[in-house]
């Protein structure tokens, strides 16, 4: 058994040793929305492995390539009239193009044509797809950036050249315009087409959860998915409310700057990993979400308030939604008495009966496993038992709320 595998087993035994609480994982207690249409299972598994609760709502669907008549027409045109350059942008798109051509009986003709042109690959994944098809790329940028591809083409000179560009649903701001301004003829190759999902139920549930405070973060892996979510919110009349939530309470995380464009056009600050991959995106969430929670010294214990759970002295305590609503209301002014009427307003779907507060508070105390964390003040309300030595100014009022800082600030 290798050392890495043995160490992994030892850590697992430590987490599950009798009489000890499992170690709190980075995303335990957080709910994260996933809008991806493809690779959603992979992203969801990465998040769940680190403790996250995933709400999957594919904001788009991909039209199968063999059904796309526009791609068929472009493929025939490129076979009949060879381009000078072909820019391949995604592995799934390039593979799908070749497979679709084979289905139309044009596979051999397309590969023969591509073998005789200058073939550029945006990154290592599409480079692998090109080589798997028996072809060889001429060049691929180390940065995996379309901006670097554009710079190379313009440096070579594009006047009078015919350039086929694999489109993949993402906006390519200025790319086509710059090539045409340089005198190139640009032929777009629409390898797959983004369409709204057939079932809007999951998207609506994600939107409702975002507005109700049921999400801590929402992830985007394509610009069309972000635009589609905004469009659905517009159709439901909740676009402004969604944007307000994404600017404040809910953390929007995008796989890269191009994906973030529809959100940033609406003045929504997003977070992005340094490397535009799912793994780094998950690592970013693992750093950011725990770093944004409120941690309070209460009744001699360390209380960490997460999205749908609380960590008490390093032990994860799941809390029902009503209890979390009460706890957040108390934590806005830790140590101060919060009247029952104010707590009643904080309860989701609460009516006018203050006994609902008492019932939810009793369940909250049980969930926390330490009843003394919350004190009852007779005829007045409830308060968090903030430690006497705590700096009350530090925790008092709305300024204590965790705020998002825009990238680069």
Care to describe what's here?
This protein has 409 residues and is an alpha/beta fold. The chain has three domains: 26-60 and 197-291, 3-Layer(aba) Sandwich (Rossmann fold); 63-194, Rossmann fold; 294-400, Winged helix-like DNA-binding domain superfamily/Winged helix DNA-binding domain (Arc Repressor Mutant, subunit A, Orthogonal Bundle), CATH 1.10.10. The protein has 17 helices and 17 strands. The chain has helices at residues 3-15, 40-49, 69-80, 91-103, 107-115, 124-132, 146-156, 175-181, 201-211, 223-235, 239-247, 257-264, 278-291, 321-331, 340-346, 355-368, 392-395, and strands at residues 31-34, 53-56, 61-63, 85-88, 118-121, 162-167, 185-190, 193-195, 217-220, 251-254, 294-298, 301-305, 309-312, 315-318, 338-339, 374-377, 381-384. It has a four-stranded parallel β-sheet. Strands 5-4-6-7 form a four-stranded parallel β-sheet, with helices on both faces. A four-stranded antiparallel β-sheet has the order 11-12-13-14, covered by helices on one side. Helix 4 runs parallel beside helix 6 and helix 10 (223-235) crosses helix 11 (239-247). The longest helix has 14 residues, at 278-291.
């Amino acid at each position: 058994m290798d050392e890495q595998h043995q160490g992994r087993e030892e850590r697992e035994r430590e987490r599950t040793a009798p009489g000890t609480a499992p170690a709190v994982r980075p995303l335990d207690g957080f709910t994260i929305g996933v809008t991806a249409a493809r690779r959603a299972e992979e992203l969801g598994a990465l998040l769940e492995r680190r403790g996250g609760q995933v709400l999957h709502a594919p904001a788009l669907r991909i039209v199968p390539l063999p059904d796309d008549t526009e791609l068929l027409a472009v493929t025939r045109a490129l076979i009949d009239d060879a381009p000078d350059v072909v820019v391949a942008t995604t592995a799934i798109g390039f593979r799908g193009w070749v497979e679709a051509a084979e289905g139309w009986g044009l596979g051999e003709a397309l590969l023969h044509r591509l073998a005789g042109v200058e073939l550029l690959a945006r990154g290592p994944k599409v480079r692998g797809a090109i080589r798997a098809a028996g072809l060889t790329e001429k060049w691929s940028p180390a940065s995996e950036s379309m901006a670097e591809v554009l710079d190379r083409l313009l440096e070579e000179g594009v006047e009078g050249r015919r350039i086929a560009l694999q489109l993949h649903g993402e906006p390519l701001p200025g790319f086509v315009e710059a090539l045409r301004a340089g005198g190139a003829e640009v032929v777009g190759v629409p390898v797959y087409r983004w369409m709204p999902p057939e079932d809007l139920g999951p998207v609506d549930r994600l939107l409702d959860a975002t507005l109700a405070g049921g999400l801590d973060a929402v992830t985007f892996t394509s610009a069309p998915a972000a635009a589609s979510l905004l469009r659905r919110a517009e159709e439901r009349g909740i676009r402004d409310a969604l944007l307000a939530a994404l600017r404040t309470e809910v953390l929007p995380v995008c796989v890269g700057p191009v994906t973030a464009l529809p959100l940033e056009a609406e003045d929504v600050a997003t977070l992005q990993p340094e490397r535009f991959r799912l793994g780094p995106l998950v690592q970013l969430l693992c750093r950011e979400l725990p770093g944004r929670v409120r941690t309070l010294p209460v009744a001699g214990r360390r209380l960490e308030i997460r999205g749908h759970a609380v960590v008490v002295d390093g032990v994860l305590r799941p809390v029902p939604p009503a209890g979390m609503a009460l706890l957040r209301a108390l934590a806005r002014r830790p140590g101060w008495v919060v009247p029952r009427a104010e707590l009643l307003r904080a309860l989701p779907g609460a009516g006018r009966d203050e006994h609902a507060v008492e019932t939810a508070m009793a369940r909250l105390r049980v969930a926390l496993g330490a009843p003394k964390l919350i004190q009852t003040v007779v005829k007045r309300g409830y308060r968090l038992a903030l430690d006497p030595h705590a700096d009350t100014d530090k925790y008092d009022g709305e300024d204590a709320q965790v705020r998002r800082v825009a990238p680069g600030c």
